[in-house]
Amino acid sequence: MNAPLMPLPPPGPADRLRRRLWRLVWALTCRFTPVPLLGWRRAVLRLFGARIGAGAWIYPSARIWAPWNLTLERDARIGPGAEVYNVAPVVIGAGAVVSQDACLCTASHDFDRPGFALTTAAITLGEGCWVAAGAFVGPGVSIGARAVALARAVVVRDLPPGVVAGGNPARILRMRGRARLVRGIAAE
Amino acid sequence: MNAPLMPLPPPGPADRLRRRLWRLVWALTCRFTPVPLLGWRRAVLRLFGARIGAGAWIYPSARIWAPWNLTLERDARIGPGAEVYNVAPVVIGAGAVVSQDACLCTASHDFDRPGFALTTAAITLGEGCWVAAGAFVGPGVSIGARAVALARAVVVRDLPPGVVAGGNPARILRMRGRARLVRGIAAE
Amino acid sequence: MNAPLMPLPPPGPADRLRRRLWRLVWALTCRFTPVPLLGWRRAVLRLFGARIGAGAWIYPSARIWAPWNLTLERDARIGPGAEVYNVAPVVIGAGAVVSQDACLCTASHDFDRPGFALTTAAITLGEGCWVAAGAFVGPGVSIGARAVALARAVVVRDLPPGVVAGGNPARILRMRGRARLVRGIAAE
Fold this sequence. Notes:
Three copies of one chain form a homotrimer.
Chain A: E1 6-7, H1 13-29, H2 38-47, E2 51-52, E3 57-58, E4 63-64, E5 70-72, E6 77-78, E7 83-85, E8 90-92, E9 97-98, E10 103-105, E11 107-109, E12 118-120, E13 123-125, E14 130-131, E15 136-137, E16 142-143, E17 148-149, E18 154-155, E19 163-166, E20 171-175
């Protein structure tokens, strides 16, 4: 059961200013830093309200929309070109990996009602899970611990712990583990 | 029935020059403007031949290949990072929304015949339809009024009015409206 | 049968330095060159170990991860925004076309074993094949001569020669040739 999509009130001037300031600071102080300067980028993100555990990696070309809506547990990683569009909170569990060009998208529109209201819902990635290159995770999705979304998977429903999912829309293909020993389920 | 793909003659020197000039002007005068400077970007696009209705939004990071092949009706929106590759005409209906990183691609190659000729066909988005984040609309596709292409949908055939489609390739999932009341069709 | 994924030893300091130098040289001498300056970009790539045939096209906005792992046969093309993430070798056959924003990705992780080791496998594109806009080719994949991966296709298994494949995951839709004459197989 995905988290429900909630309408989002339009941003006030303070919120707009905060986001503009954030974008400017990241562009000037982090965007073009060398990859190993991890501690510096963690510090800048924390200054803007992100909760970031020890050993977490954020690549300089990753794009965080709102650091005050980001929780990155220890040793989690956000890869090059990955986008965290966290209008609602995004929690990335310990040791989880979001690979290059993946996108975590917390916003949508209520297209079934007049008004086309902006709606949002939080995304949660469990401990040790992997969102592979170019995958997309939609609003309200929880990915269970150690689950895998394969490259370019489009995940719009919750994934239980330990599964391997792929495709658009993503389907569960097998359990993570020793691929050859799983009977009756096609290896991806 | 998609619009047929037609061979495109190779561009002449005047056409190449026009496109180079357009790219340069956009890069220098629009690409780094603040989002609310909508009227300015509309004016620059119109100067290059785009037909743009009142209230239309074009984000500074959107990429328009050829403004002389663009019709954007009133209140239509082209979001951040969206790409309009309009080698053939693209018409975006009133109030329609093309969200971030979506791509409207009017060109292909005739790969079934020797020569691999470049081919193109127009794209038409009906009034009030929504092409969500990262979706792709192929050459010759018409999307009916109020239809929805969900995030990352790959739409290569026409969509009738009012449907909700998703996946790669995109399939029709249900009618737009009150999702809970539609029986027998899985909600997306 | 895809090529097997092999564990990759972590890069040494010489390798890191070489990659940094390559990125810098491309950014300064090629990234912003005009499209027709093909010979210059070929020369720079060859200087870093790429094997490039006569008449090959590489667009200035294409991204080559490691030129020393690139073989581009005569008249092959790598389009704008395309990414060749060639941690393992990538061979692109004569006259093959990799269109805009496509991605050839030779790396993955062994997510079924503790350690989550980086793994890689070579990618081979046969003569005259076409990887269309925004398509993704995974590690170890061989695409047969003249085969087509349609726009946004996600190809994670080998494709035999002459087929047309599309979707995520990609499925074989028909044979390349005169589309109307193929019976019993839906045209894409």
